[in-house]
Amino acid sequence: MPGITIGVGVLLIIVGVIAYFMSGATSWTALIPTILGVLILCGGLIGLKSPKIGVHAGLVLALLGILGTSMNVLQLGALFAGEAERPAAVIASTVTFVLLVVYVVLGVRSFIRARRWKRGATAVR
């Protein structure tokens, strides 16, 4: 999971930088995915030494990111209707949201797998 955490962090950094330049480099809020990506990347790097702490930190940040981006994701209908006030923000938030949801799902599956493995290992002893 630390490698996946690092990968998600890098992808979010890229999404934020692209969103910033696509919005005309006028609003720092387009860099929110980049800020989130840097924090998750740091969690992944911590996870290389201490997987439990780093990955848990990354997943907590991802959950906060999901909550934060959900407001813009709800405006997808307006985007498709051509009525969105900030189409670049809706697109960047949706991409961020999807990346974070996939990351959280992978993290939960990893935790479940680790717990089952741990139970199996203690049952054999």
In brief:
The chain has 125 residues and is mostly helical.
- Oligomeric state of shown chains: single chain
Identify low-pLDDT runs.
none
Number of beta-strand segments: 0
Task: Give the rounded overall mean pLDDT.
Answer: 89
Give me the number of helical elements: 5
Q: How widely separated are the two ends? A: 27 Å
Secondary-structure element pattern, one letter each: HHHHH
- Secondary structure class reads mainly alpha
Overall helicity: over 70%
Major β-sheet annotation: none
Rg for CA atoms: 17 Å
Strand fraction:
under 5%
Shape: elongated
Topology:
Blueprint lengths: L1 H21 L9 H18 L1 H23 L2 H6 L5 H38 L1
Helix pairs in contact: 1-2, 1-5, 2-3, 3-5
Keywords:
125 residues; mainly alpha
What do these coordinates show?
The two termini are 27 Å apart. The protein has helices spanning 2-22, 32-49, 51-73, 76-81, 87-124. The chain is built from five helices and no strands. By secondary structure, the protein is mainly alpha-helical.
